[in-house]
Amino acid sequence: MLIHHSKLAELSFEMGPIRPPSEGGSYSLLIRVARNCPWNHCAFCYGRPYNHEKFKKRSVDDVKADIDTVSAICDEIKKLSWDLGYAGDINNAVGAALIRSIPQLNNNHSFVNVFNWLHSGARTVFLQDADSIVIPTPQSVEIIGYLKEKFPTLNRITSYARAKTIFKKNPEELEQLRQAGLSRLHIGLETGDDELLWKIKKGVTAEEHILAGRKVMGAGIELSEYIMPGLGGRTMSKQHAVNTANVLNKINPDFIRSRPFTPLPGTPLLDAYEKNELELLSPHECLEEMKIMVDELDVTGRICFDHFRNPAYRTGTENLIHLLKQDYDGYKLPEEKGVVLDLIEEGLGISEERFLQPEDFIRLGSL
Ligand code: SF4
Fold it and tell me: How far, in Å, CA of 331 to CA of 348, rounded?
């Protein structure tokens, strides 16, 4: 059966460009509460995911209007499911029938995001962009409350946050956010080494990272901390590894997520690399650094390697094997620390030429 009249193709809401891979894996609904990054100075990033554009908070009314549009898309998809004979169920057959009838839906990001979210149970929301909790807490509470009122199936609401922003919030505000329904924050730690934090212009010290992380954990909000093996090059490798583990030990986050460093287009670090002013770690050097860091860890959360830039090597048949598993839950510490260290050791026993090289990752960019 073909659908002849539907307003679905005309419905859209604002979405930012990125979200953590784990939020894609759980098909989170993307709600943009602020645009771009309020900092834009980190030397490895420079706000490039947001096209270096200026930060802007969105009004609560605008965000609520987007949530209303999501609700309208949901209602329309469910209605069409009934029309198609699927009794309101959201499944692959409904998706295929909708695309067949309204081909432009294939390129409609709002429809695709809402359909996948409904299909996966409409459980998780990710609040965009880079530091959405920089908006005043009462406004965040109002937005989260509205989301939960509109979509009672939600059981997880997450966001990116800068450690400096958390550092400046008082604990009561974080408690209010948790009570409203904010359940997980993703923070870019990158390194726990003060010299390197200053060098990369992160705008936050190791101590501020620790206090911010503890504040999040203390409020009962789940915490993902992102780290960047290789960020300090050869000269700072050891201090980067040891001090990053040290900061993580003091925070004890729920998740540590590894994002090995690659200089990317649009950042000063790629210019520095091209002028031979920046040395990148070889695959074995990167593994040695990861070994020191993992060995120093004394935490009870999970360590995850859920990004393609983590160490990968080719087999004789040219298949690419990731040394460490790439799922979003990774390895539980301390129980699986030995497993991770053994795998790193295994990698050190594999000829370095077989690994993807720093140049390969530069070529692949941020894919
Ligand atoms: S805070 Fe995040 S988004 Fe902003 S420049 Fe730094 S790494 Fe990039």
Answer: 19
